[in-house]
Amino acid sequence: MTELMDTFYTSVGQTLVEDILRExxxxxxxxxxxxxxVKRLLGSFHQDTAxxxxxxxxxxxxxxxxxEAAYFRAGFRLALELTR
Length: 84
Prior knowledge:
Layout lengths: L1 H22 L1 H19 L3 H36 L2
C-alpha cells in the first residue's frame, strides 16, 4: 500500500500541486524572494561556510518534503477509511 501511495503522491505532486502553486501569487512572490535571499546570504560567506549553509538548507528542504509526504499519506489513509 505504501508503494501505491508513493506513486500517487508523486503523480499528484507533479500535476495538481504544481498547478495550484503556480497559480498562487503569494507562493511565487515568497519563493522568488527566498531564492534571492539565499543567494545573497551564501554570497556573503567564505566558500566553506557557504557550502555548509547550502548543505543545511538542502537538508531542511528534504525534511520538509518528507513531512509533506507523511501528511499526504495520512490524508490518503483517512480518505480510504472514510470510503469504507
